[in-house]
Amino acid sequence: MQSKNPAVARVLKRLHYPLDVILMCVRWYVAYPLSLRHIEEMVAERGIEVDHSTVHRWALKLLPVVEKAFRRRKRPVGKSWRVDETYIRVKGDWKYLYRAVDRDGNTIDFLLRAHRDKTAARRYFEKSIAQNGEPATVTIDKSGANLAALEAINAECETPIKIRQSKYLNNLVEQDHRAIKRRIRPMLGFKSFHCARILLGGIEIMHMIAKGQMKCVRGTHPSTADQFSSLVT
User: Fold this and answer.
1) pTM over 0.85
2) Is-contact 55 37, C-beta < 8 A?
């Protein structure tokens, strides 16, 4: 399999494995609760010798290209957002993954930040709005930082965003966190913020593909594996 994507071609220039093997390993890593050593063992059963550190290196090189391609093919999301942040361990310290879903459970966007404050929350909202358009309603928990960030954004908007603060109305996004946390548990924490950002991006993209958030050719129903591969081929 050869890639027609110039960005992928540059990434793969010095990687001496077939593209389909690389894509399979990277997809497994972000799609399922598997450790790198699990993947090494699984491909060895198929007669392919790949060191677990090589799979990790492939993921870091390929996933930013995958994320960029996916964003061009992401389906539109709803105007009612549920926003929350969850804890992610990076190099022994807790960091904060900001996430949101719409009323149908579709992922709006995500952003890993070092701190949980007004600045981090505002950066998340600005990124999400730039990528997905302005929402009509945003539901948050009792976080003062999220409220302050939204109020600052509203002060600059012609049509203010309606803000709802309710812990119970945010159950949908809290449930959605579980799919992400389940996947990262075998990773036993990230070694750097840079690695965490890239790998979490890949996990989120695969999660969105599984939820049917990627535009496909009308009348076709490709598998999640085929959709993932189409982002780089």
Assistant:
1) yes
2) no
